Every structure is written in C-alpha cells, then in structure tokens.
Amino acid sequence: MERLRPADPSAVGGHRLAARLGSGGMGVVYLARSPLGVWCALKVIRAEHADDPGFRARFRREAELAARLGGRWTVPVVAADADAASPWLATAYVPGPSLADAIARHGVWPEEQLRLLAAALAQALDEVHTAGLVHRDVKPANVLLTADGPRLIDFGIARAVGATALTADGSVVGSPGYLSPEQARGRTVGPASDVFSLGCVLAHAATGRAVFGTGGAAAVLYRTVHEPPDLDGVPPGLAPIVRRCLEKEPERRPGVAELRAFFGEFTADGWLPEGLPALIAAQATRVVDLPVPEPTVVGGEPGGPGPGGTGPGDTGPGDTGPGGPSLTRRRLLATGSVLGLTAAGAGAWWLRSRGAPAPPPPGNRPTYVVGLLGRRADGAFTAQEHGARLAVDEHNHDPARTFDLVLRTADDGGTAEGSTRGAAGLVAGRNLAVVICAGTNATVPAAVTALTRTRTTALVTRADTSLLDSANLTTALLLRPTRTAGPPAVLRHLNREVKPERAVVVHDLSDAAETSAFVRVVTVFGKLDAPAVVVEEVAANAGFTAVARRIAERPKDAVLFAGLRPERAASLDRALREAGHRGARVADEPVLGGRFLAEAEGWMVGTAYADAGADPRLRTFAAAHRELHGDSPAPWAAEAYDAVRFAAHGLAEAGADGPSALRSELLRAPWQGITRRFSYDPGGQFYDADRDGGAFLYRISGGAAHFVARADDIGGGDG
C-alpha cells in the first residue's frame, strides 16, 4: 500500500480514496471508503483505454458479468461506472494475504491443506462457470486467504462463455505461468482453461515453484505450450489429478464437477498451514487509521477530476471529515470485524501508513547484515564488493535511517560446493537479512538452493543461466533476466536500427542445453522483426566455414550468434570476414573475452552491466565510487550498488517485520535503481528486461568493448 500521490483524485464516484493498493497497465487500484463507509478496492481505468470507442461497451458488459457472482468463494463487484470520464469499478475488500505472498513468507503447503484449498477453489470455479463466466486469470496472487477459507478475486479479464466479441482471437490475456496453452496461443478459451490454471496454482502451493519455471514471458509461454510441467514435489496423492489438470488439450482435463467430487467438501477447521492463522489474525485486527487525503492536483496519472462528477477535494456520502475514519469505524476494524469489509487487495493485505517515521535513537536502531557471496579472486566480485560497500556507506550516513547495515562477504571458491558452504556460513551469522549472490552460473544455482532451504532472501545480480528458470525461487529474486529471454539490447539494435531484410541465427550446439530455449524464443515468438529469420545450426566443435559461405550469398544479412564461448564466436567472425559478409553481427555477454575481443571488430554485444564511466545517468555514482575507493567503478559495481539499495528499500518498507517480510516487500511495488527498474509479476516473479531495462549495448573496437547505449534508449526508446 502507498500513500496517495498529488495527482490522484480525492474521491471517485462518491467513494473517498485513502491509499494506493497497486497499479498496472489498465489503471490504478485504490483503497476507498464507499458512501456507506465500507472499505473497498476501487480500480480507475487509464485514460488511453477509456478513449477507445469500444472499450466502454466491453467494460460495461464485463462489470455486469462479474456482478453475477455472489458465492462464498468469490469477491463481488459492488459498484461500477462505465460512463465516467475515467471508468471505475469497486469490489469487496478481503483483508488477508494472497496465496502468492503466503507461499513466499511461509513456504509450501502440506497435502491436507492443499486438498482443502483445492476443494474451495474448485467450488469457486463451479460458481464462476455456472454464472456463464471464465475467470481467465486464476493464479496465486488472485487467491486471498482468510480464516474461513480462500477467496478468488480480480475478474478484470473475465469473459462470458462464448462471448468472443469481447476479445478477438489472437490476443493473449492472463498471467504467464498460470494461463492455459490455448490462452498462450491466443485462442478461444472455456472453463477448461481455468482448470489448467488451478492445476498450476496447486502445483505452486505444493512445491513453491511456478510449474513452467520463471524467466521472460515469452519463454514461460513457450514452455506452457510445448514442455511438460514440473511436478517434482507434488504429494503422490495429488500428483495424478494435478497432472490431468495440466493436460495440453482442454478436452483431456477433468471438469470442475469431477474436481469437486475428488477433493470433497471444504471445512474451515485446520485448513491453513502452520503460521498462517496467526499472521492473518494479526493483520486483520490491525487498526486502520488512514487520514482523509488533502485535496489533490488535477491531471497527471489516473486520474484528475474524480469520475462520476467528484473531483479533487470533493467529499462523498459517508465521509467523516478531516479526521479520517470515525472512531466507530476504527473500533470495528480493530475488533476483527474487518472480515466482513470490502475489496480485492491486489496483494496489499495489511493496512498501515507508509509515512516516513521519525528515526529511532542511534542506540535503538537494529543492524542488518547484507551478505555478498562470490569468488574473491574474481574481478567481477571485487567490483560488486566495491559497489555494495558504497551503498552501505551511503545508507549508514543517512540521518533519517531506521536501521544500520553491515556488509559481510563469503568466498565460494568458484565451485558449487563452495557456494553452498559460503551460503551456510553467512546464514550461521547473526542478523543476516539478505544474501547478494554475486557469483557465476556455475555457483549461484547451488547458493539459491541452500538459501531457499533456510528461508533467506537471495538477490541474484550476475548469473543468467537457464538453470535458474526452474530453480526453487521461493526466497530468491533475479535482478536480471536469464539468457532464456535472449539479449534485449542486441535484439532492439537489430529491430530498431539495423532493420535487416533477413536475420540469420547461428546456433552453436556446443552449449545447446543453455542456448536452445533462447533460439526457440527468438524464432517461435518472433523477437526478431526481420521479414525472414533463418536458423543455422553448427555442431559442437565443427567449423563455421560452410555456414559463413551460405550467409555471404546475401552479404547484408544480419547475424546473431547464439552461443556462449568467446573462441567459437571469434571463429565465426573469421569465417564471415573471409566469406565476404558485410552485414551487422551481434552476440550476447558470455562471448566477451579472449580472441573475440581481440578480433571481432565492429560486433555489437548486449550485456546486463552498465558502464559507469560512459553512461551519463551514472555520473553521480561514478564520482561517489572514486571518492570512496579511489578508482572508477568496474563492470557489475553499479548493479551490486543497486542490489544493496533495493534490499534497504525493502527492509525500510517492512518496518518492524524486518527480514521476514523483505522478499514480500520487494515484490510488492516497482522500485527504480540507477541501472534498472525492479518490478515482478506476483505469480511468476520473473524480471522482464523488455519492460524494466537493465540491458546495455556495447561495440567491439580496438580489442575492447565500448558502451553505446542502454537498451531502452536504442532507436528512440519506447516512446
């Protein structure tokens, strides 16, 4: 939850706004009080959608459809206005954590509780389908937990069965990792699609993993359509029915009636795993004391004057004046009667003011340890240590801080076994809040596994192996995309600047296990915009002469090297030059080194690390680094600096909950660093460089890589 911003309205359609619950591509969700004084979640649609001539008709129709629901396990629409300047919709508020947040904080669910969860959700889907709807976005973030059972929320993209006019086939809606194969293909969906999503949710709750892994949306969608689900860890008594739910073909999945018969009736006694009842009770009984907002400024984000005729400064029925909620209302909330209040929480499941508290006296500040794990002999680790120390130093010099930070390093020795030992050593120390995994693809997966077992938040800065796509990321967050998603910087360079008639992907099979997913994403999901895309496979240790000659028959074709070894990329470069190729040549970060740097003049290479000496946005950081360490920052220093500051931001937001709530806070809302923006899908929890940046383009010249641009600035940026 966030405070209202100056550009936010004070009231919408007679509902008094109190805070922001979240925002997305469609609009902003607010915590609001209805004209009768009841809390609700109110979504205001962004103006660009409202300006679409057909949008209002679709919005009105879908609000009417969602209003049909009134069962025990769904959260109804309580008010809506499709004709307002900015259309809005209010739903009942459920003061409980989402299933996604509960898994992240307390781990996987035992079989008995999984069965009860499944029983309630199967009944919820039965209610939805009986009302003639398909939910189309069943995922852990849309399941809220209360003492008397779960609630299925967010019918924002629900569709009436058979109402294909509301959305044309070919579009993809829903959340990657939980939507069905037919959704991923943009085809018409029916009730069986929700059954598939339910299977994904149950598998996630049983294992702590997204059933089709993590990574970029395109890679997750590909695995959803073409690859089997990861059900390792699902209890044997549930695995067969979950596997049937995840059949690729809709007609092979069980219906909700069969699911209800299999899972039986829901009972509230003992339905929550250990630890969650106390958490829900504590958060549900916390006193809400949000002040009535001051009149706000017209304009900016959604949205200016309040829809339905109420603009900034207006008050609606039920407002209690400048003092905020009435004493009666606050008492009602404090006694636990909030269980009857209103609105889908959008992941914001406890209510507290986000104002900056006065810093505690120095003697009362807690001290949190930030661990940094990597190989001390590695220059990239030294760079990350320097960047991390700068962030810690700056934090500890802030007079408004509410806690102090200490940096503690551990050496992984460059091996997986050493990484496991190093992680264990950090965990054994006192006051550990987070571990920054600064190692390589050979070491970080082992560290992530070890830290997950101890429920320690891990932030991965450098590693990009596809092994992290399906690792148990219950307590880890990647601060960059894995290589499965491909190199965003060079893809934008090709698509926006080179614009070739044909692009040739040279797939070096020496590392096929690590590169095949990227090649599939580029070719299957069309990340290359060239009219023609050709894949040339080269066997491990084979030469590139024959491939280069075929490419040179069209000398201006662009070449994308899909491989990991600098010497192999250098060999391709020599073959292309000898064959007379003159087109653009691009590759990804792993090729930087050895003979490739010395020979591959003119190649463009994408990385996930910035150049603080050349990127104008990093001048302040570079100056501070020189002042503290006496030298300019090396690659990966700025990324580690961002990692520490991101962790400090999360700890500050967590307040008294401290490290136990850190990962949940980091997932809750986007945060802007100096190198990239960090935001995560609540279900899949993947980092998307196409959306959030953090990718950089370099040119090889004179035996070195020279910074060219951030990916989001290539070809005029996203605007």
TrEMBL record:
The keyword Transferase applies. Residues 15-263 form the Protein kinase domain. CDD domains: STKc_PknB_like. InterPro entries: Kinase-like_dom_sf (IPR011009), Leu-bd (IPR028081), Peripla_BP_I (IPR028082), Prot_kinase_dom (IPR000719), Protein_kinase_ATP_BS (IPR017441), Ser/Thr_kinase_AS (IPR008271). Keywords: ATP-binding, Kinase, Nucleotide-binding, Signal, Transferase. Coiled coil: none annotated. The keyword Transmembrane does not apply. It comes from the Bacteria. Residues 294-329 are annotated as: Disordered. ATP binds at K43. Gene3D superfamilies: 3.40.50.2300, Phosphorylase Kinase, domain 1 (3.30.200.20), Transferase(Phosphotransferase) domain 1 (1.10.510.10). One of its GO terms (molecular function) is kinase activity. Residues 300-324 have a biased composition (Gly residues). It holds the Pfam family Peripla_BP_6. Belongs to the leucine-binding protein family. This is Bifunctional serine/threonine-protein kinase/ABC transporter substrate-binding protein. It comes from Streptomyces lusitanus.
